[in-house]
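Per your request, structure below.
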């Protein structure tokens, strides 16, 4: 550093001298007339060489990777978010849980008088798209705190010590700018369980994170919020009280929450009077907040495409189909024979679903979308958290009804039931291994023991699936005329909505329900 300063001082003196000598060439003075031309050239050349040397020394290449000399973490946000709890819909219980943390940051003195300490860490876990990041920003917005964002992958490097250094830098900044909130998204990237095969660099990074979270001074109001989709991967030392004191599950919203989320995402959109947010919430069972936001956006895009001034229920229905079933194929090259097979396949699903009342059929279509040649949009009448053995069995019967219809009508089966078989087998496996709903009795079998009893479990799963397939064939055989009517209507119109399906059912008096 001293050498560079000395070079800079000499350079300044040389530039001044060179400038004076250059001006003397155009405006001669008696005092400088004795300096010869050769000496002037020497001074000018020396100044140029010194200038190049100084510039080169200031941009010399690093001998170590630049990532080691970088004190800052990329993509960090110092902004104070303008998001508040008003922008977070459908998570009332979680917002109420977080109010204490917000109150502590805003009025910490009354808690300290009682000897209470602020939770050092809050961990949000749950499926993707449910609002974990939005909640963290809302907490920062409500407390007017500095919000420091980092993703777990930013701490992972191949150079030993880099991740730990970045963790230190992040937490030093958080303490300096307290009150602050440190949000680490996808924390399982650095917080996964340590073992003999784990990476040394990742272990050092995790160790540093553990030290920083457990080493706060009591007067510093710094909260760490983590988010992950895989709670089971996190190290136990990270989950203990004193680090992440509170674990909050952020799951898929229920019907009321979906209604509130849709209201938030449609409040700046011109809606037609035909749009009923509650009906849309009923049709979107099981979707996350991100899915609902996407549906609202897709509906607006479709309305613009149709040159509409307002968004109608038609655009929302099309958006739901776009999100759930995929992109519609405009010019499909489906053979007539395949089209007829798909029609009976989907008609089988729709007929059995309506007879067994497993779910409400919203739409049946044989218009190809994504990788599917046809689909049935269905949703439950209300949110369910507990299912009986009979209801699970009815779901299996409904899933297998498509293949059963193919066999009943064409005396052969196709590859179109692959996804149905996967879903039906998964339900049957959970009934045997998790729910104790089989002849094996009330027993739960974990993944490690499945391989030891594979043949026994496979036989039990097959028994359940065979029974479901047999019941599906029986229902379709007893209602074959109705099946043909639905399939013929599909071939003619390509899609049937719930009202049209209801009218078809009314033509036939009391179809026989044979699932007993």
């Amino acid at each position: 550093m001293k050498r560079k300063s000395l070079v800079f001082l000499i350079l300044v003196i040389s530039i001044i001298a060179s400038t004076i000598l250059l001006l003397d060439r155009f405006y001669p003075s008696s005092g400088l007339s004795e300096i010869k031309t050769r000496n002037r050239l020497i001074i000018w050349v020396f100044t140029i060489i010194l200038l190049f040397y100084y510039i080169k020394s200031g941009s010399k290449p690093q001998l170590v990777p630049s990532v080691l000399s970088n004190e800052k973490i990329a993509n960090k946000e110092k902004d104070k978010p303008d998001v508040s709890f008003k922008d977070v819909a459908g998570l009332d219980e979680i917002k109420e849980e977080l109010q204490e943390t917000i109150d502590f940051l805003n009025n910490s003195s009354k808690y300290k008088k009682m000897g209470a300490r602020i939770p050092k860490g809050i961990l949000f876990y749950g499926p993707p798209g449910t609002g974990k990041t939005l909640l963290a920003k809302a907490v920062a917005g409500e407390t007017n705190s500095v919000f420091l964002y980092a993703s777990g992958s930013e701490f992972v490097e191949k150079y030993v010590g880099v991740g730990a250094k970045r963790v230190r830098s992040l937490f030093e900044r958080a303490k300096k700018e307290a009150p602050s909130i440190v949000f680490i998204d996808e924390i399982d990237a650095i917080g996964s369980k340590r073992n003999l095969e784990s990476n040394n660099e990742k272990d050092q990074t995790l160790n540093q994170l553990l030290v920083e979270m457990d080493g706060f001074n009591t007067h510093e109001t710094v909260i760490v919020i983590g988010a992950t989709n895989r709670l089971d991967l996190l190290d136990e030392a990270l989950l203990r009280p004193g680090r992440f004191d509170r674990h909050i599950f952020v799951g898929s919203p229920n019907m009321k929450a979906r209604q509130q989320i849709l209201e938030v995402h449609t409040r700046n959109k011109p809606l037609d009077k035909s749009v009923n947010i509650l009906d849309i919430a009923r049709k979107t069972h099981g979707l996350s907040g991100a899915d609902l936001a996407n549906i609202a956006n897709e509906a607006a895009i479709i309305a613009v495409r149709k040159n509409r001034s307002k968004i109608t229920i038609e655009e929302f229905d099309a958006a739901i189909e776009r999100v759930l079933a995929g992109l519609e194929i405009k010019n499909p090259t489906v053979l007539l024979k395949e089209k007829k097979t798909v029609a009976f396949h989907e008609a089988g699903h729709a007929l059995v679903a309506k007879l067994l009342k497993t779910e409400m059929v919203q739409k049946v279509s044989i218009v190809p979308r994504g990788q599917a040649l046809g689909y049935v949009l269905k949703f439950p009448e209300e949110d369910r958290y507990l299912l009986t053995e009979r209801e699970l069995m009815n779901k299996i019967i409904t899933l297998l009804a498509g293949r059963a219809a193919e066999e009943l009508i064409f005396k052969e089966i196709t590859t179109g039931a692959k996804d149905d078989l996967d879903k039906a087998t998964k339900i049957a496996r959970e009934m045997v291994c998790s729910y104790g709903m089989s002849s094996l009795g009330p027993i739960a079998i974990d993944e490690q023991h499945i391989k030891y009893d594979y043949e026994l479990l496979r036989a039990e799963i097959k028994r359940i699936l065979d029974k479901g397939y047999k019941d599906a064939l029986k229902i379709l055989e007893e209602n074959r005329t109705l099946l043909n009517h639905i399939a013929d209507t599909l071939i003619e119109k390509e899609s049937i909505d719930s009202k049209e399906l209801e009218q078809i059912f009314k033509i036939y008096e009391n179809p026989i329900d044979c699932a007993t």
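The beta strands are 121-125, 146-151, 180-185, 222-228, 246-249, 360-365, 375-379, 495-497.

Regards,
D.
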